[in-house]
Amino acid sequence: MFYESSTWKKHRSLGTSSPLSMPPKKPQQWLQVVGHAGSFHVGEYGMLLKRFCEGEQQCFQKLMDDTLKPFVPTYHGVVQRDEHDYNMMDNLLTHFNTPAIMDCKMGSRTYLEEELLIAQERPQPRKDMYEKMVAVDPEAPTAQERAQQAVLKTRYMQWRETLSSTTTMGFRIEGVRKANGVCQTNFKRTKSREQVMEALQDFVDSNTQIVRGYLRRLKQLRQVLETSDFFRTHEVVGSSLLFVHDGSGKTGVWMIDFGKTVALPPHLSVDHRTPWVEGNREDGYLWGLDNLIDILTSLLPLT
Ligand code: I3P
Fold it and tell me: Is this model's pTM higher than 0.85 or not?
């Protein structure tokens, strides 16, 4: 069974490294937050099926042989359902009891450099994005955009970045689902440090044990990211960290969503902290993780 929310973009549910032979204990806890309808299904043994994307498959295949493996859902290959292909992976919520879940989109940039080039060469203004923009801020479109009633995707994405904490902190909260089932998706304007702290504090219910658990995991992740071959050789854009905890105090954080993670040309590598300028492919992922760790630390009492 799925929980659904029409507003929180895309599915946000992945798995712990439970073996294929172990069915999930509590299938009712599976979560799908739907953006593109039909993109997600539950497969055999409670596996998550995500609409096939070749780029994402390539990332998963490489990640299964990388030091980052414990920080991503275990990948089980491609399956077909109703004439569509799906990438199959573990469901990350399986071993939690009525979990609370948060999705943080990482990085200081949410569109690929190649998307920028396409927008420059073949601009295709989008009406749906114009409508999403004016729904949040009727003053945001330029006179030209208003006349066209449409905006370029890169312009929309940049506007979302500056409206939220993406530009200033290198991450933003996309959505939260509390243990009581309530979904919060209204984070488009969550930008200042104080606003982010308040949202995080609310997510963890001011529980310092949970904060400490998340911090331990994030610091381990940072250490592994700093030496991972995969990470050094990929532009990681639009990828999220999925935070999961439950009433027992158990916590977990995993990297998810690799649809816009692309391999760099062989001569190029990135450190994920250097500010982005067009051409350097930097994504600000580690800078964002540094800031996230710093903010979570500030939720703890001074010792
Ligand atoms: C969406 C969000 C997604 C993006 C999507 C946007 O905006 O930025 O990350 O998908 O583009 O519509 P919002 O969160 O404000 O609804 P990608 O990251 O896959 O590009 P899309 O409509 O072209 O899918």
Answer: yes
- Nearest-atom number in ligand 1 for the CA of 237 is 18
Instruction: Provide the pLDDT for residue 3.
Output: 32
By three-state DSSP, how is residue 180 classified? coil
Distance between CA 14 and CA 31 in Å, rounded? 9
Evaluate: CB of 51 within 6 angstroms of ligand 1: no
Strand ranges inside the chain, DSSP E: 40-42, 48-51, 75-81, 84-89, 100-106, 171-177, 183-184, 234-236, 240-245, 251-256, 261-263
The predicted pLDDT at position 27 comes to 37
How do residues 289-300 score in pLDDT, each as one tens digit? 999 999 999 999
How high does pLDDT run on average in the chain?
A: 89
List 81's β-bridge partners, or say none: 84
Please give the Cα distance from 43 to 13 (Å, whole number).
13
Would you state the structure tokens that stand for residue 26, as one six-digit string?
A: 């509590």
**C-beta 175 within 6 A of ligand 1:** no
105 ligand 1 Cβ < 6 A: no
d(CA 246, CA 133) in angstroms, rounded, equals 35
